[in-house]
Amino acid sequence: MTNLIGNTARRSFDTTADQVFSLDGELPVRRIGFGTMRLTDERPADPAAAPVWRGPADRDGALAVLRAAVDLGVDLVDTADAYALGESEELVAEALHPYREGVVVATKVGVVRPAPDAWVPLGHPAYLRQQAELALRRLRVDRLDLLQLHRIDPEYPLADQIGALAQLRDEGKVRHIGLSEATVGQLREADAITPIASVQNMYNLGFRQHEAVLDYATERGIAFIPFFPVAMGAHAGPDGPVAEIARELGATPAQTALAWLLHRSPVVLPIPGTTSVSHLRENVKALDVRLNAEQFARLSDLEAAPEGA
Coiled-coil annotation: which residues (predicted)? Predict the structure, then answer.
């Protein structure tokens, strides 16, 4: 594959024409997934600070959103054992089990929640294996489609953490392995240990501090799963540049922001979350929004948040 590092930030791949991506080359999913983190009882104004501590107050509403997602063709559902202390995984199973053919459920292990405002990496291999076993029970499956290391714990060698997940895969309990919030160096190190199918980092129009990770993933054919994909920062105002291009396209600003991600690289799989079925429909329809090269360049030229913001 051609080396794309340093050359993708302004390139339009017109990848909405390819609405499906195959994880590790063999597990196809549509390129708009669904993230379950927002299906919790507590959602402060800043989504990045969400405690994600309890299950949803409106459980029936959350179940309806998950079922509607699959009805609309979403076949990648992302969750984690740390979301609402395992309730998120239970919610996914309650809504979707037995899973339709082709539905891929991704979950994450490697973070403990000792308090509502605490997210603490814990990469002890025995703990990772235990949490994977609990995820199997809560999701009611014999094998996890995609198991991602939620955070890399600096207290343990990465080889030991990835090795625990690889052992689960060798036992038939995990199909594919991924990372979350990883650097290029960490991704490269992990990929040398065992095939890495995905990396899940925060990335959107207003926050582009993982450009190098996305470029590496593009070069290697690794799925890049941006969380908080619709956040647009100062560009999101009704008279802002995103809204202007949205009007040109006959789309919404959220759809335009998602379309930019889809055009940014063919490996990008956004997982926008919502508690609203109408917003869910809006997000899924972003697959049909086509940016031309000039519109893509105008969005790419917008100033992102400064490094460290």
Answer: none
